[in-house]
Specification:
Elements: E1 5-10, E2 16-22, H1 28-32, H2 36-47, H3 51-56, E3 60-64, H4 65-74, H5 76-82, H6 87-99, E4 106-110, H7 112-115, H8 121-137, E5 144-145, E6 153-154, H9 163-166, H10 168-177, E7 184-185, H11 194-218
Antiparallel strand pairs: 1-2, 1-4, 2-6, 3-4, 5-7
Helix pairs in contact: 2-8, 4-6
Length: 219
């Protein structure tokens, strides 16, 4: 599972079925399932692994299914206030998790690949903690547009139940704007590429030079 971040279920037939997945992104809905204690447990677990071990070992955290879904449902007002267009999808998504086959009643969330796009593990975990605080205090989280969906992409597995088949709201939302303004990423400490840094500095210098030129002509 190390080629993606995912939510997966351990099912009655022994299969670990990926329900939702994403790459170097962090879907908003996934964060709704997490508590601050979950984030700290994840930080502690990953800190104990070096890069090679992380590729081979289990990097997921197991959430109590009932508690995680209840926690997300309690944060529904945040979605209603700041992501009203996505509210029907959120409701369908929680229902889908509720009826999905989790043999041990745990929702497994693997965030390792998503975390690798941050400056370091602490930045990643701290950004999640900031987002969770905003959810619970009903303050909007700073975000940027991405190609990730609010719930990630549906996983490829043998489940008879399929989220997009079940959720008309998800299908309609995807038709409207699968890569646009409905797709938000909680990503407070993302790396800035060297090229982007040069561009930003160049723009700032150009603005400064322009201002100085204007001021001189006015004197």
């Amino acid at each position: 599972m190390k080629n993606c971040s995912c939510i997966f279920a351990r099912q009655m037939d022994g299969e670990e079925a990926i329900l939702f997945e994403t790459g170097h992104l962090l879907p908003l809905f996934w964060l709704m399932l997490l508590s601050k204690e979950d984030v700290e447990a994840y930080r502690k677990k990953i800190t104990q692994l070096d890069e090679e071990e992380a590729k081979q070992k289990d990097t997921s955290i197991g959430l109590d299914k009932l508690k995680a879904i209840t926690r997300a449902a309690d944060r529904r007002d945040y979605i209603k206030q700041y992501y009203i267009t996505c509210l029907p999808v959120f409701d369908d998504w929680l229902y889908f998790l509720q009826i999905s086959d989790f043999s041990d009643m745990k929702i497994y969330v693997d965030l390792y690949v998503a975390g690798s796009s941050y400056n370091n593990l602490d930045h990643f975990c701290d950004s999640m903690l900031k987002a969770i605080t905003c959810f619970d205090e009903n303050q909007e989280v700073w975000h940027e547009n991405t190609v990730a969906g609010t719930c990630g992409y549906e996983g490829r597995n043998k489940n008879k139940r399929r989220f997009q088949n079940m959720s008309k709201a998800c299908r309609e939302l995807n038709k409207k704007d699968i890569y646009g303004r409905f797709d938000k990423k909680i990503h407070l400490n993302k790396k800035t590429s060297f090229g982007k840094k040069i561009l930003i500095v160049s723009i700032i210098l150009l603005i400064i030079i322009t201002l100085i030129t204007i001021i001189r002509t006015m004197i």
